[in-house]
Specification:
By secondary structure, this protein is α/β, with parallel strands linked by helices. Helix content is 40%, strand content 13%. The protein has 18 helices and twelve strands. The strands form three sheets. It has a seven-stranded mixed β-sheet with strand order 3-2-1-4-9-6-10, sandwiched between helices. Helix 2 runs antiparallel to helix 3. The longest helix has 20 residues. The structure holds 2-acetamido-2-deoxy-beta-D-glucopyranose (NAG) (5 copies). One 2-acetamido-2-deoxy-beta-D-glucopyranose (NAG) binds next to loops.
Amino acid sequence: MQNPGTTTTSPTTPKPQCSSSSLSFLTTTLIKDPKPKPILYTFLALSLFSILLILSLTSSSRSSTHTRPDPFLYPTHQTHRIIYDQDKTTPPPPSIAYLISGSKGDSGRILRLLYATYHPLNQYLLHLDPSAPQSDREKLALVVQSNTVFEAAKNVHVMGKPDFVYVKGSSPVSFTLHAAAILIRLSLRWDWFVSLSADSYPLVTQDDLLHIMSFLPKDMNFVNHSSYIGWKESKKLKPIIVDPGLYLSEGTEMFYATQKRELPSAYRMFTGSSFSILSRNFMEFCILGVDNLPRILLMYFSNTPSSLSNYFPTVLCNSRQFNKTVINQDLLYAVYDSHRNNLRPLNSTDFDNMIHSGAVFAKKFQPDDPVLDLIDQKILNRSPGSVVPGGWCLGEPGNSTCLTWGDASILRPGKGSKRLEKAIVELLSNGTFRSRQCI
Ligand SMILES: *[C@@H]1O[C@H](CO)[C@@H](O)[C@H](O)[C@H]1NC(C)=O
Ligand SMILES: *[C@@H]1O[C@H](CO)[C@@H](O)[C@H](O)[C@H]1NC(C)=O
Ligand SMILES: *[C@@H]1O[C@H](CO)[C@@H](O)[C@H](O)[C@H]1NC(C)=O
Ligand SMILES: *[C@@H]1O[C@H](CO)[C@@H](O)[C@H](O)[C@H]1NC(C)=O
Ligand SMILES: *[C@@H]1O[C@H](CO)[C@@H](O)[C@H](O)[C@H]1NC(C)=O
């Protein structure tokens, strides 16, 4: 336990454990130059991105030496071990890989969501789609780089080259798989994959969530699904589409074929919602697995509208290996508008319902809606521009709580963990979840 602020506030003295890292060298260069020449600046920022990208693609053994987190956050001192081992009732905390994505003008929301969901044990990948200018991506990376905590834990990454995401088409599936593949390469440690859009927000702290998830089997998948396909769904699923993002360099309107096709009979089709909490095992099955089911379904869904809501539930429920791991509840609080087509924006009126639902996340929110400040204040105990204080923050209460680090694996769950525990217990009680699995 030591205050690392003293070493990190001075960018000219890089910390010994990362002086070999080209990333920290670049940061140092960027900050040291009093009057950065625009061309040099752009060049450095661009190299930064290539390095980020290369880092994510190099072999895991190499990247693990490059992205080793600050030892203060992961102390290996015996004292911690002993204290930790005595507490046999609490299993070691799991870790979550977050993909946080948005469009033009969403940088601020992405950062806020990052602060609100931050924990040093997790991994984060930030993505701005091609509608946002490259300068926004660069600015985002620079903000991440200049944050003492993110720099020390080395767990926040920005995708330098954007993927096309056309929500009504199939490109979101390819984007999600791409991001999950990067996260699998970046870290061997994470247990669940969560993809958040910039209009979502958490309803519990990461300490609450990781604490509750440490008691769950690591192969559980939380995703809303149903094989009931009424006329309304059928009408939505039968069209053949071609997503422009898959073959045109400039996004245009989606292409609809004049003919429609029958629903599949070679496998059962499931519909669901685009949000889910998926296990690492399952993501590896989809990306690296030798079973061809994920790829066959990928090809089928490439011509189907709104594929992201249906791809993962269909793969899960058609696979003998995974169909028993599905929980038919995504732990997301969302309210549809009166036409039941789109999500209605949530506001302060929804606060109590949202909290009592026991959900982990909620969506959708308008940018900087006052209800987000309410959640920060009452639930997350977060002050503007800083991360949610957790068991790893040992500083004085206030803005600098998280600049003095303790062991990242010590969680301090609060009231949110009780709400979540109640919701999960209800979900899993007396085996009722089995009767709602893949139906
Ligand atoms: C899982 O798949 C197996 C084999 O296809 C099937 O017998 C079983 O009923 C499925 N379980 C669920 C919950 O769908
Ligand atoms: C997911 O399913 C749960 C329970 O079936 C339901 O309460 C919730 O509204 C669903 N979420 C979405 C986004 O449809
Ligand atoms: C919240 O949204 C609902 C439905 O759109 C609306 O009736 C209500 O007045 C809103 N409340 C506030 C505080 O804006
Ligand atoms: C935290 O920082 C904000 C803005 O930087 C400031 O307004 C607030 O007074 C600070 N709070 C404490 C407790 O230092
Ligand atoms: C089992 O679940 C059903 C349906 O949710 C509920 O009505 C019943 O009380 C539960 N039984 C026990 C023993 O928890």
